[in-house]
Design a protein that fits this description.
Number of helices: 6
Distance between the termini: 49 Å
Order of helices and strands: HHHHHH
Radius of gyration: 18 Å
Strand content: under 5%
Number of strands: 0
Largest sheet: none
Helix content: 55-70%
């Protein structure tokens, strides 16, 4: 396995300390300008909730610490945080030569996510309780 320098290892360890506040401040800034976001085209034209419907409201609920409301609006942000944490742990392990690289990025997991996303889209349009508020 490749040996990484101390600088690379330090960067990987400091990555969340750098990225998380930056992501938070950008999202917080954008949360004050939600009226600039266009309405969902699929819902406006066809009254069909796409996989992204409720995504902005989900992120805003997550920023306010309301995880259940965030999942109610759309599960993608919470799932993305879990997947991002998993990938970060794999990156740390890879840089420190502890584990093979990026098992989450294997094709079978990406296909599984797409199938779950498709099922979620169909189910949230059948059962209105799963549609964003």
């Amino acid at each position: 396995m490749k040996q990484y320098s101390k600088l690379t290892k330090a960067f990987v360890i400091l990555l969340p300390i750098i990225l998380l506040p930056a992501i938070y401040f950008v999202a917080e800034f954008l949360s004050h300008y939600t009226h600039f976001f266009p309405p969902c085209v699929s819902y406006t034209l066809f009254h069909f909730h796409c996989p992204g419907c409720g995504l902005t409201r989900s992120v805003l609920a997550l920023l306010n610490g309301d995880i259940l409301l965030s999942i109610r609006q759309n599960f993608i942000p919470v799932f993305s945080i879990i997947a991002g944490a998993w990938l970060y742990i794999e990156l740390v392990l890879y840089v420190f030569n502890k584990k093979p690289p990026f098992t989450l990025l294997k094709t079978k997991y990406l296909w599984a996510f797409l199938i779950i996303l498709l099922i979620y889209t169909v189910v949230r349009n059948i059962f209105t309780a799963l549609a964003p508020i």
